[in-house]
Amino acid sequence: MAPQLDPVDKRQAAREVIDILQEISDLLNTNLDRTELSLCVSLIENGVNPDALATVIKDLRKEAVNSKRVSNAPPATTE
Amino acid sequence: MSTSTRPTTRPRRIDDALSQLVESLLPEIPLSALPQDHDFSDDDLALAAAEEHRHHAQLERAWRTLEAHPSSGADPTSPAGRRGSSAGEDINHAPDLIKRKLRRENASPEKIVRFSNLYTRLLTQPVLSQKWGILYLLYKLSETDEEQQPVERSRSPLMDEGNLQNMLGRGAGRPRRGAVVESEDDEGPAVSSSASQPPRVSRESRAQRPSSLHRDWEESTERASASRASHYETGDERDGMASPTETPASHARSTESVENGLLRDLPFNLQGLSSTNLQFQSTSVLKLPSNLPAPIVSLLNALAEPCLLYKELAGFVESAEGGLVNQSLRAAVANELRSYLGLVATLEAEIRQALAAIGNASTMQGVRKGGVTLKRCMVWTRDATMALRLMSLIVEEARDKKGGQLISLIHGFSSSHGDPFVCAFAEKLLAHVTRPFYDMLRLWIYDGELSDPYKEFFVAESDLRTTADPRRTATSVWEDKYKLDDDMVPSIITQDFAKKVFLIGKSLNFIRYGCGDSGWVEAYSKEASKELRYGDTATLETSIDEAYKTTMARLIHLMDDKFKLFDHLRALKKYLLLGQGDFIALLMESLASNLDRPANSQYRHTLTAQLEHAIRASNAQYDSPDVLRRLDARMLELSHGEIGWDCFTLEYKIDAPVDVVITPWGSTQYLKVFNFLWRVKRVEFALNSTWRRCMTGARGVLGSVDDKVGPDWKRARCVIAEMIHFVCQLQYYILFEVIESSWDQLQAEVSKPGCTLDDLIEAHTKYLNSITHKGLLGSATASRYGVSTSASAKQPEESFLSQLHHILKIMLSYKDAVDGLYSFSVAEFTRRQELSAKIETRTAQGRWGVTDRDMLPRRANSRGGASMASTPDIRPASAGPDGIDTPFSLSAQDLAADDNMLASLRVRLRDLSADFKSRLTTLLSDLSYQPDVDMRFLAVVMNFNDVYKPRRRAKPTSGARDRDRERERAKRKAAASAAAANAGTGSGTESSREMRRERSAGAGPEPGNGNGAAT
């Protein structure tokens, strides 16, 4: 890290990094949007194990799918 | 990092971020998703509550996962557990994984390129400290859903870091096939640190194995004895298999269990150990159970190969014989085997895990779930098998090879094999195998030491001291101590290069031992020595070139400065090749009287004294004392009745390091040249002294007897002038055209930049050869021009040397004859003097000056001349003054003898001159057909005005005989003409004989000349 960077530069650099990561993320089809990506970045920068984070995200996604399935199935019967 | 810095309490920032993440990831709960039976009135509230609830639950779960992960190392299947300790490796690993994945999923490289660009850009950004983490996260997230069930995640043991890198030694570019492709998805960081774990597992399992193994083994032996045993050699009898007797359907379950058993045993088999089902009959036979279905048998056949190969290679590694290169090959193979064992260990862990899974759900599904089947194992071991196969091939071929040949063998695989896998593998082996070779090379080119206990280097200490080459009879440190063994030059270096290396080491060795300058060598090796290894050919080449230059320069410098090689060469030319004219002239003059005596009356001390005198009195005294010290005069051994001239020789002593250039052979060549030149010089000296006497005599003594021997003298002077011309031309030719020009060439060769000691030796040899050859000394066959002169060499003609020797001999005897003529003339002169004195005294006494009695002898002569000729000059001393009458009769006899002697002298002179002329003509005609320009030039110089008529060679084969015949004819003709001339002069003397009445009483100075002429 370069501590002597002033805040403006830092933000600029951070944006750039996120841009790059966003591109890589698109390349890899991770389905992460920009917010999620920055959240992940900050998590990892704070020392979270990326492997674990990946598991968490996957779990959450699964959960989301499940809940969607749960929520999708009943409307078919209700409508 | 994550383990160490993980806070015990949940830090706020992480909590916030995580909660946001959960929020953004989870979709809004739609209204319809709410449990319908509850039917809340306030949907929003319900939604919020549900979301809140879910959010908390998910957040809690996420936290659990996060916290569980870093500490989950106990679980071997958990990918994260393995990577806590090896995060450092992952920094580069994550992008690699991504690249690999992209390559796998996309045919075109375009995406990879894009990724690489992005990655490099990312690397330059200073903001992030955990770049790899992000990338890894992205990578993880990009995975497809199929491996969400952890049990099914079948990771390929091949992909384990060590094995992948070590065992296969190939880049990521190698396409994967079949089942391995999908299983590769979660290779990577998850397994990156697994190296330490599987062995432990396998140890455990091995510990619990024996009891069951024993039981199984007993069963299987019974079964094996009952059924027909079938043997399978690796790779050979692939098609032999047990035919399945049962239907597949009923057999499925038993096959299942059999396969499981086989799987369980497989790791042991792969380590070359016998197991229940598969037993090693010998090192090369693995027995398969006979009651298996064909597919399994064929699988086992394939799997048997690495087992057997491993066993064989392990045996090779255990063995201990062979040289250093062999040992390093063994070490390299052992290294490869170790990584193979690592693979086996991982495999075993997989198998155990799979079998445990089967234990849980003992259905067909279990196997599927376990994900490890024989087929898979086969695929996993496939590359390892190839490596093993290649190693076994190398080991097989290396059996009776050593050193350089072995390296060449492996290099052959790496450089000319079509399969990139084989190339890469051989290349890797080569790096290990060549290590001892490069050590030897380094020691050789920097220290000049040969440390080669197993004779593996391409330089060998030559032990045969008796060389076949006669030119190098003595042992020469330079030539014979080491030799280059072309067979042992490994193909990683070229022949040219090998020669250079050989020369460098040899020079260093020579500097150290021959020149006694080991201090320099040590300093040099300390300063220049550097590590040499396989691969960086360019560095190797430059360092060797450098070493070559340094060493050669040093050697030449030593030769020049310390050992004064060039001074010695110059001195040899000066003294042995008669370059120092005043010295030689002085030496010859002072030695002439001495050397006329027989060889056995020559004494060394007189010779050395004369030599010393010649040195002191000539310019040689200014030469360095070191050079003069080496100069020595001695007599040659071959002294059988010869006079001193024939066996006198000068010698120049050469000692240790310089004799590498001026070899003993060279010294003999010098001596040969010196002897020849000395002889020519001697003839010149003799002829000159005769000429001088003639010239001085012509004014006094000879002038007064002109009437009697005048024509003889004229003729003799002509012939002597001819001879002197010949000798002068010969000397001029040898000294200036041959020696000086060769010397010039030698100088040019030697002063060339980058001249090596070998070049020096070569140049010197060439110099000597050209001198001996052009100086008419070389026998045609031994000369280096042998090819071109072989046609003339085949003829039975005399060599130039013997022709010249004949001519010189003729000259010497001619000189003797002329001396005889001179003394005859002197005798004649004194007799006349006495006669006139007698006449005067008689006249003074008043008698007749000439009486009748003076005329008497003529009649007496005509009566018994022949018988009296044999005793020409035995004159009793008492017959002098007392009797006046008696002398007349005696002098009459003498007079007759004199006449006889004169005649025979004339004949002799004529014969000799004719012989000289014919031989010279022969020589000239031979010379003019020489291929060498210089030698033809000699012929032209000698015959510049076409005095001699060299015959053209009619036919090369009959030429010699013709020449002989012609020479005979010429001789006869010359003799005839000489006889005619003799008769003519004889009549002349007849008329002048009246003048002679008396004969002097003074003793004739010529003791045996007349006698010799008469016989």
Automatic annotation (TrEMBL), chain A:
Q: Which GO terms describe its biological process?
A: gamma-tubulin complex localization; microtubule nucleation by interphase microtubule organizing center; mitotic spindle assembly
User: Gene Ontology cellular component?
Assistant: gamma-tubulin ring complex; interphase microtubule organizing center; mitotic spindle pole body; spindle
Keyword Cytoplasm appears in the UniProt entry: yes
Q: What is its main location?
A: cytoplasm
Does the keyword section mention Signal? no
Per UniProt, subcellular location reads as: Cytoplasm, Cytoskeleton, Microtubule organizing center, Spindle pole body
Q: How does it assemble?
A: Part of the gamma-tubulin complex.
- Describe the task this protein carries out: Required for gamma-tubulin complex recruitment to the microtubule organizing center (MTOC).
Q: Which family does it belong to?
A: Belongs to the MOZART1 family.
Q: What is this protein called?
A: Mitotic-spindle organizing protein 1
List the source organism: Penicillium daleae
- What is the phylogenetic placement of the source species in the record? Eukaryota, Fungi, Dikarya, Ascomycota, Pezizomycotina
TrEMBL record, chain B:
Residue spans of biased composition, Gly residues class: 1005-1015
Assigned keywords, A-Z: Cytoplasm, Cytoskeleton, Microtubule
- In this chain, composition skew of type Low complexity spans 975-990
Biological processes annotated in GO: cytoplasmic microtubule organization; meiotic cell cycle; microtubule nucleation; mitotic cell cycle; spindle assembly
Localization in the cell: Cytoplasm, Cytoskeleton
Question: In Gene Ontology terms, what is one molecular function of this protein?
Answer: microtubule minus-end binding
Q: Locate the Gamma tubulin complex component C-terminal domain: which residues?
A: 565-948
Compositional bias annotation for Basic and acidic residues:
90-103, 201-222, 230-240, 960-969, 991-1000
Residue span(s) of domain Gamma tubulin complex component protein N-terminal: 263-562
List the GO cellular component terms.
gamma-tubulin complex; microtubule; mitotic spindle pole body; spindle pole
Note the InterPro entries from the entry: GCP, GCP_C, GCP_C_sf, GCP_N
Q: Where is this region: Disordered?
A: 67-103, 145-258, 848-886, 952-1015
Q: Which is one Pfam family of this protein?
A: GCP_C_terminal
Per the record, the similarity remark reads: Belongs to the TUBGCP family.
Report what the protein is called: Spindle pole body component alp6
Name the source organism.
Penicillium daleae
Which taxonomic lineage does the organism of this UniProt entry have?
Eukaryota, Fungi, Dikarya, Ascomycota, Pezizomycotina
